[in-house]
Amino acid sequence: MVLVKLPKKKDLNAFITEEFQKGKDQKNKIEEIHRQILVTKKALSKEKEFLEGKSTFKEIVVKSKQWFEIYRHMVTSNGFLVLSGANAQENEKLVSKYLQEDDLFFHSDIHGASVCVLKTEGKIPSEQDLLEAAQFAACYSSAWKNSFGVIDVYCVKGNQVFKHSHGEVVAKGSFVMRGERTWFRNMELKLVLSGSGDSIIGEPFVKNNKGIVIVPGRTEKKRICETLLLKLKANNIDIIYKIVPGNSEILSR
């Protein structure tokens, strides 16, 4: 039996009501404390997930760029790096800084073509490697903008390329070739885009025919790039803009 002493000048009903209310208030306080604990736990859990996700994101994104990635480039079937200039300034730099004596210089037989350099690194490229580099050079020339289907491409060694003609320096981005040239006739203007996300590549059709094939056409470059962005599920349209030479059409399979 529990004996409770009533305060003076208070009847029993008033005392019971007051004590009941105190108990109820105490219960509400305890429930509020529990609620706050749960809210805090959830907030800490979300913060942990965010930090873990942020850490993972950094691991994926942080990537050191190779020096050649500022240029349009490809790697041939046998591992030879091919570089292409996008303008006169890049053409000039490719030749002056990166073209070695044993490297190969490719150029389409048309005014307004990119310089393409195949880096040999002292090795001898196969006929397939040469064809791939030649088609790459064909695609990145004014032949694409003029909607040509084919174009001739020639190739010389690095030690046959000069900046002087009869004692005079030629225009920026232009060069003089001396000696015998190797010709690749009627190279088709066909590029293949493949990959996804941030890893989108553009390669000549003679190397890879398993992606999305584009050829010179009437659809403006902006629209083609937007279509390719969706088809390839790419993360950045700038990558595609760098690959697509100009107005194009997508070949249906």
Question: Layout of SSEs?
Answer:
Blueprint: H1 12-61, E1 72-75, E2 81-84, H2 88-98, E3 104-108, E4 116-119, H3 127-139, H4 142-145, E5 150-157, E6 161-162, E7 164-165, E8 168-169, E9 176-177, E10 182-188, E11 191-196, E12 199-204, E13 212-219, H5 221-232, H6 237-243, E14 248-250
Antiparallel strand pairs: 1-2, 2-4, 3-4, 3-5, 5-10, 6-9, 7-8, 11-12, 11-13, 13-14
What report would you give on this structure?
The protein has 253 residues and is an alpha+beta fold. The chain folds into two domains: 123 residues, no CATH class; 64 residues, no CATH class. It has a six-stranded antiparallel beta sheet. The longest helix is centred in the first third of the chain and has 50 residues. The protein is elongated and about 125 Å long. It starts with 11 loop residues before the first helix and ends with a strand.
Summarize the structure.
With 253 residues, the protein is α+β, with helices and mostly antiparallel strands. It has helices spanning 12-61, 88-98, 127-139, 142-145, 221-232, 237-243; strands at 72-75, 81-84, 104-108, 116-119, 150-157, 161-162, 164-165, 168-169, 176-177, 182-188, 191-196, 199-204, 212-219, 248-250.
Low-confidence stretches: none
SS class: alpha+beta
Rg on CA atoms, Å: 35 Å
Number of strands: 14
Distance between the termini: 93 Å
Strand order in the sheet with the most strands: 1-2-4-3-5-10
